[in-house]
Structure formats: C-alpha cells, structure tokens
Amino acid sequence: MKQPSPAIQGTPGHAYLALRNRGFARFLTGSGLVWLGTSAQTLAIGWEVYTRTGQALSLGMVGLVQAIPMFLFTLPAGYLADVVDRRRLMIVSMLGTTLTSLLLALFSFRHGSVGLMYTILFLDSAFLRLGWPARIAIMPLLVPVEHFESAVKWRTTVMQISAVAGPALGGFIIGWSLPAAYLFSALCSTVFMLLLLTIDVPDAPRSTRGNMLAQVREGLEFVWRKKTLLGAISLDLFAVLFGGAVYLLPVFARDILDSRAAGMTPEQMLGWLRAAPAAGALLMALIMAHMPPLRRSGRVLFATVTGFGVATLAFGLSTGFWLSMAALFLTGFFDNVSMVIRATLVQLSTPNEMRGRVSAVNAIFIGSSNELGGFESGVVAQLFSPVISVVSGGLCTLLVVGGWSFLFPGLRKMRTLSEDGSHAGG
Predict the structure, then answer these.
(1) CB atoms within 10 A of CB 319
(2) Could you give the CA distance from residue 50 to residue 115 in angstroms, rounded to a whole number?
(3) Dihedral over Cα of 79, 81, 83, 88: its sign
(4) 6 belongs to a structural domain
(5) Which of 6, 26, 112, 276 could hold 328 in an S-S bridge, CB 3.0 to 4.6 Å?
(6) For the segment 174-191, what is each residue's pLDDT rounded down to a tens digit?
(7) What is the total count of domains within the chain?
(8) Around Cβ 115, how many Cβ atoms within 10 Å?
(9) pTM of this prediction exceeds 0.70
C-alpha cells in the first residue's frame, strides 16, 4: 500500500483535503443524516420497550433480535458488495430501513405488542446488514489513498456529531411524540438515498461471481492470516461486548439516577446520557482529524481500550448525574481512537476486490460487540443488578486488554496504520 506523502501531511489545511472530494463530501453528509436519525430512533426504541415492560431483560432482547440478522446476513452481504454495484446495494438497504422506520411509527401510534416490535426490529437490522459492508467498502473509492486516513477521521467526526445531536434531539422528540422519532429517522434515510444517486463512483476491480460460500471463506481466511488485523477487530469485539453500558441507560435514567436533582425529566436525562459518549468521541475525533497520521498505533490502541474499561467501571459505580456524564464522555473519548485505527487498518490492508467480504467480517465483530453486548448486559442486569452488570463489564474489558497484549504482540508493536500488519514492528 502506498504511503501517504510527507509533503501532503505537512501542507497547511491537509486535514481538510478529503472533504474537497465532492463525492466523499456528499456521502459524508448523507451518512451523518442517517446516523442522526438512527440515534434518535434507537433512543425511542429503548425508552418505549422499557416503559412498556419495566424489565432490563427486554432491553437485552432488543440487542438479541438485532444481532440475529447480523449473523445470518452480514457475510452474504459482504459477498454481494464485492460482486455488484455497491451504491445500488446501499440504496436497497436504505429503502428497507426507511420502510421499517415507518412501520415502527405506525406500531407506536397504534400501541402494538412488544413482540411485534421485535419482529420489525429484526427486519430493520436485516436491511441494515445488507448494505453495511458496501457502505464501508465504498469509501476508498471516493478519495485518493493519501487522503484515506483523513477521510476515516472525518467520517468518525461526523458520526459522533450526529451521535451527540441525535440522542439529545431524540430526548425532546420522544417527550413530545414517540412516533415522531421514527418518522424523523425515515426522513433522514430518504435524503441519504437521494444523495447517493448524485455520487459518481469510479470503476474499480471487482471479484468475479462464483461460489458464494467459497468466496466468503476466502474473506474469513484473509482476516485469519492478517494477525494484526484479527487482533485489532477482536480486541474491539470483546472489550465492547463486556464493557458496553448503552443498552442499560433507560434503567439508569428512570430508576437509578435522580433526574429531579438534575432539573430534568427522565426522558431528557436519557437523551443527555446517551449523547455523552458521542460528545467524548466527537472531541477526540476533532483532535485526531487535525493530527498527522498516527505513530505507534498499537500502543495507542491498547492504552485507549484500557481507558474505555476504566471509564465504564467508573460509570457503574457512580450515583450522581454529572459523574455519570463524565464517565460516559470518557468511554466515547477513548473508543473513538480504536474506531479510527480499526477502520483504517481494515481498508488499507485489503485489496478492493475483497473489501466487501473483509468489511463484512469486521461488521460481524462490531455488531457482536454492540448487539450481543446489549443482550449480555440485559441478562446480567436481570439476574443481579444493572450496577453489577456495568461494573463487571468494565473489569472484564481490562482483563481482555491484558490477554490481547500477550496474544497479539504484533498488534502492540504496530506503528503506522498504512503499514501492512505483517510489517508492524517495535
């Protein structure tokens, strides 16, 4: 892989070069709108489920029904992203999620059963998984290679801006009308589809159509051979699987933290708690967007995942709103670094004709950590308590960091992200 030019890295305004690519700028704008709408919708889903059932396990079930399509459809979607037009695949995916958002609005308005809501969430996750590998694999086609790390940083920046604004906005929307949050998400995904139609995607080598199972296996084998890549995405998997507290935030907002002492309603508190990790990630994303390419990336990765685990532990032990906000802020602050490192490493170490399948493998790891992490948190909270669920998760994250430092020494020694993992050194 070609190294980024030192002259480009040192040029004034080099951090903004990726944004000058019109196709990438439109893609980034549409993606930001989708993240904004999805954040508001996710907040509404958690609040509606917990308000109706009053059980932490019900929140865990939300994660489970969203995880099942991930395991069923992500790898086939990665194969499709390598053999068909990625933009068309993304449009089909967005069309499906728009329809499921409209169904959720209708469900909420008519007070349907929670079981029906789980069914709609299953379909929504299935459509999302269909286009996810294509959304990741299309990015290197929209910017020159020397701008790609900058593009990833701006992508995470916009994602975190949306993730901050989405829950805060969602908290006010659901206080007024739950169905409106779902309609807002449908509007955002519709605008993204229209923007996709205006983007000119350059031609690039594709994988030839063939035996899907054999080609999916080829993607899995590629990740297995790249030990640095395997270590990076599996570290994120297990750290977030145990350390995620997001799915339990409705419980903390309604039953554990005192919203009246903070001068707000439980719905508004939930919105601010949900926005806190994204606010931390946004600050880190803005810092990283103006930094040159990372050096000693491996050590930085392990240090920030350690910080994520400590912050998760602090949130679980906190009984005050502002301390909880600060701890959640730090989880996002540290997690954003690992997100940039993993996303850049996945794309720059993979040839274009395999990026869909490798992105699919990465998406399964990410999805496992998020959705299955939510299910795990809900089960532990139901069996013991929400506090025990979060605290034990933070401790497990720290144990994972220690174990992965021993199992993947090449990852710990990795220097720049544009290196092939096999060339990482200390």
Answers:
(1) 10
(2) 13
(3) positive
(4) no
(5) 276
(6) 878 888 999 999 999 999
(7) 1
(8) 8
(9) no
